[in-house]
Design a protein that fits this description.
The protein is mostly helical. The protein has a single domain (5-406), classed as Amino acid/polyamine transporter I (Up-down Bundle). The protein has 16 helices and no strands. The protein starts with a helix and ends in an 8-residue tail after the last helix.
């Protein structure tokens, strides 16, 4: 979960919202939405533990066509775009810290390196992932503690302002919340590799729920620390928020070093998405004969063709599209996909009330209502205020439906 968004999106939010109270409320709301989604996904994933994420869950809950469209989005941009965003952010942080004029090559080199690692044995991939995830979490905790100890308040005020209520119900809050939910993207990542998890009925829900709660706490504290470390004018519109906050805390050298460490910390985010994405393509290749090449695996049981196809798409995105454009383009269709999965909990409760559910949503239907209501609210405002990006997303879905019609019927029976 802890990827590019938390180190970049605050700068975009501050362009339209300068109230610290509203900004912090954004990150708390984002965490509540993610936790609610994780609770709903936990029920479905425990019922139907198979790799594939939304492709598998929508296919089994609603219709193969919806599952295919979700899988199509995952294969084309759903994972490739976030990896490209994270890789570009890594290159930007590292380039700023090292004084490299063209950091784009750093991004591409990292994508090639991590892809090569994921072509090997799962044991080494897992160790790589765990090592850099632990490093990233320690780095964030150190940064939070250092900022609160070493910096002054910077006139930080968490009290509501006169126009904050109006802001909460306006388009700026809704669009900014979409950026925040992008930062929380990954709370459902375990669903994509369910088939590679031991005892998925138990461990998969625990991974999503506990992980999401921990990340929510870290995100709220980290953004509070950023606002405490540097004035809003210094952060507004900037991509390298973490480095700027570190410069105000440790000085230029210390800030550049922290920027380099943040870049290294982003490796685990890149690695996790490079790991998960090809599993969706592989499952689709198993289900649709015309996509069978995507299911081919090497001697380590890794879907190598799907992995290489994803790497090629990532590199193309790194070379052609900027970070903010990518973020705006993918978020609406990703939000729509997860929204349909969560509504599927209600649908299956009515359609299959006697099905075995190893995990049930606590306080049902409150988490479902929270998640569905907030995501529908964001989508409406996004469609109105980001029409071009929304249309590009729906064009991607339309192209996916054409491919679905071409591939024909699935060869695997639905559960």
């Amino acid at each position: 979960m802890i990827g590019t968004g938390v180190f970049t999106s605050l700068g975009f939010q501050l362009i339209s919202i300068q109230s610290e109270f509203v900004i912090m409320l954004l990150w708390i709301c984002g965490g509540i939405i993610a936790i609610s989604g994780a609770l709903c996904y936990a029920e479905l994933c425990a019922m139907m533990p198979r790799s594939g994420g939304e492709y598998h869950l929508l296919r089994e809950t609603w219709h193969p066509a919806l599952g295919f469209l979700a899988g199509w989005v995952s294969i084309t941009v759903g994972f490739s775009a976030p990896v490209a965003i994270a890789a570009k952010a890594l290159g930007f942080y590292a380039g700023e810290a090292l004084g490299i004029a063209q950091p784009g090559w750093i991004s591409i080199a990292v994508v090639v390196l991590v892809t090569a690692i994921h072509l090997g044995h799962l044991r080494y991939t897992s160790r790589f992932q765990i090592t850099f995830t632990a490093f990233k979490i320690i780095l964030i905790i150190v940064l939070i503690v250092a900022i609160f100890i070493l910096t002054r308040s910077n006139n930080l005020s968490l009290s509501p302002r006169e126009n904050d209520l109006q802001t909460l119900f306006g388009a700026d809050f809704a669009v900014s919340l979409l950026y925040v939910t992008y930062s929380y993207t990954g709370w459902n990542a375990a669903a994509y590799i369910a088939g590679e998890i031991r005892n998925p009925q138990r461990n998969l829900p625990l991974a999503m729920i506990i992980g999401t709660i921990i990340v929510t706490v870290l995100y709220v504290l980290l953004n509070l620390a950023f606002l405490k470390a540097a004035p809003i004018d210094a952060l507004k519109g900037q991509e390298d928020i973490g480095r700027i906050a570190a410069i105000h805390t440790f000085g230029t050298r210390g800030g550049n070093l922290m920027g380099l460490l943040i870049a290294l910390g982003l490796l685990s985010s890149i690695s996790s998405m490079i790991w998960a994405g090809p599993r969706v393509a592989a499952v689709m290749g198993e289900d649709y004969p015309k996509l069978h090449p995507l299911a081919k695996r090497n001697r380590y049981h890794i879907p190598w063709i799907a992995l290489l196809v994803q790497a090629a798409i990532i590199i193309i995105l790194c070379l052609t599209v900027d970070l903010d454009q990518l973020m705006r383009y993918i978020q609406a269709i990703l939000t729509l996909s997860s929204l349909l999965v969560v509504i599927g909990v209600f649908h299956l409760r009515r359609k299959r009330p006697d099905a075995i559910r190893p995990v049930r949503v606590p306080l049902y239907p409150l988490p479902l209502i929270l998640f569905a209501g907030m995501n529908a609210y964001m989508l409406i405002y996004y469609l109105v205020n980001k029409t071009t990006e929304s249309l590009l997303g729906f064009l991607t879905l339309a192209l996916g439906y054409i491919v679905y019609r071409y591939t024909g019927k699935t060869q695997s029976p639905r559960i």
